[in-house]
């Protein structure tokens, strides 16, 4: 079953102070089966993040179509989805993880994961149990659960970020260079997390600068330069 289908997608940005409009991305087409993992590769500024942010509707795309197989709304074009539908999809079906943790200040790690579950309609009791399971699953040290994440290390922030995004078991998870600021050991942890998600049947689209990191994880890559899908390239060692 096709989970995500991007057709002739394009996005322009307008600079109001310069009174100019510039095409950042155009002619992007690919599709992704349920449980698949596409890595997007291409040079800096080629528009990789713009694609992910448009799927998540942080950006409102202005060309083409992005079809998503939603449990709630059926096949839905994310470019045309209403604001209330987008909010629902973000709460329940589409997760987004970057290297940055953008969360409510003065809220503990445990509360952040619980809030994601309460937003989905879980009872407070179930939210407490599932939040703890998720924090444990992603190896966040128990001593950190009731503290504020602003002092967490890069790896700890990322694991919390992934716990928040995945606790709702999204059908589609978008990974926007989550490992960019991590050391090798922390990257290995993220790899394990992604392998677990894949094993659970989550569909993934990810951007990673490091091709070696993607090897064996992605089923194929979308190359922004060639504007085509292809198998994983051999990594030069
Ligand atoms: N909000 C925005 N307003 C104006 N221009 C933007 C905006 N977001 C992205 N751009 C421009 O769109 C182009 C694509 O940016 P994008 O961040 O998608 O590239 P990228 O391939 O992810 O780059 P990198 O690998 O360096 O992160 C760039 O030229 C960027 O300057």
Topology record:
Layout: E1 2-15, E2 20-33, E3 37-41, H1 48-55, E4 63-70, E5 74-77, H2 83-92, E6 94-98, H3 109-119, H4 124-137, H5 154-166, E7 172-176, H6 184-199, E8 203-207, H7 211-214, E9 220-223, E10 228-230
Parallel strand pairs: 3-8, 3-9, 6-7, 7-8
Antiparallel strand pairs: 1-2, 1-4, 4-5, 9-10
Describe this structure in words.
Keywords: ATP-binding, Lyase, Nucleotide-binding. It comes from Bhargavaea changchunensis. By secondary structure, the protein is α/β, with parallel strands linked by helices. Helix content is 32%, strand content 28%. It is built from seven helices and ten strands. The strands form two sheets. Strands 6-7-8-3-9-10 form a six-stranded mixed sheet, sandwiched between helices. The chain has a four-stranded antiparallel sheet with strand order 2-1-4-5, covered by helices on one side. Helix 3 packs parallel to helix 5 and helix 4 packs across helix 5. The longest helix is centred in the C-terminal third of the chain and has 16 residues, at 184-199. The structure holds adenosine-5'-triphosphate. Adenosine-5'-triphosphate is lined by residues 13, 24, 42, 44-50.
Question: How is the main sheet built?
Answer: 6 strands, mixed
Bound molecules: adenosine-5'-triphosphate
Rg estimate, integer Å: 18 Å
Query: Separation of termini?
Result: 36 Å
CATH topology: Rossmann fold
Instruction: Sum up the overall morphology in one term.
Output: globular
Unreliable segments of 5+ consecutive residues: none
Major beta sheet, strand line-up: 6-7-8-3-9-10
What fraction strand?
25-35%
Structural class of the secondary structure composition?
A: alpha/beta
Helical residues, percent = 25-40%
Number of strands: 10
Mean pLDDT: 89
Gross CATH architecture: 3-Layer(aba) Sandwich
The name of the CATH superfamily reads P-loop containing nucleotide triphosphate hydrolases
Order of helices and strands: EEEHEEHEHHHEHEHEE
By CATH reckoning, the class would read Alpha Beta
Number of helical elements = 7
């Amino acid at each position: 079953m096709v989970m995500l289908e991007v057709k002739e997608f394009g996005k322009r940005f307008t600079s109001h102070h310069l009174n100019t409009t510039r095409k950042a991305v155009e002619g992007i087409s690919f599709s992704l089966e349920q449980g698949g993992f596409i890595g997007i590769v291409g040079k800096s500024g080629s528009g990789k993040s713009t694609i992910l942010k448009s799927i998540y509707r942080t950006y409102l795309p202005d060309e083409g179509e992005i079809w998503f197989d939603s449990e709630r709304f059926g096949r839905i074009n994310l470019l045309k989805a209403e604001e209330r539908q987008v909010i629902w999809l973000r709460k329940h079906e589409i997760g987004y993880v970057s290297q940055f943790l953008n969360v409510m200040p003065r809220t503990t790690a445990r509360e952040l994961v619980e809030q994601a579950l309460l937003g989905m309609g879980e009872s407070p009791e179930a939210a407490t149990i599932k939040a703890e399971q998720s924090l444990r699953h992603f190896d966040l040290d128990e001593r950190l659960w009731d503290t504020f994440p602003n002092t967490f290390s890069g790896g700890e922030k990322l694991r919390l970020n992934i716990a928040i995004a995945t606790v709702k078991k999204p059908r589609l998870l978008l990974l926007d260079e989550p490992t960019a600021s991590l050391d090798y050991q922390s990257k290995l942890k993220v790899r394990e997390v992604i392998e677990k998600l894949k094993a659970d049947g989550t569909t993934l689209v990810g951007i990673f600068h490091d091709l070696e990191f993607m090897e064996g994880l992605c089923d194929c890559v979308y190359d922004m330069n060639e504007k085509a899908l292809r198998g994983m390239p051999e990594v030069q060692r």
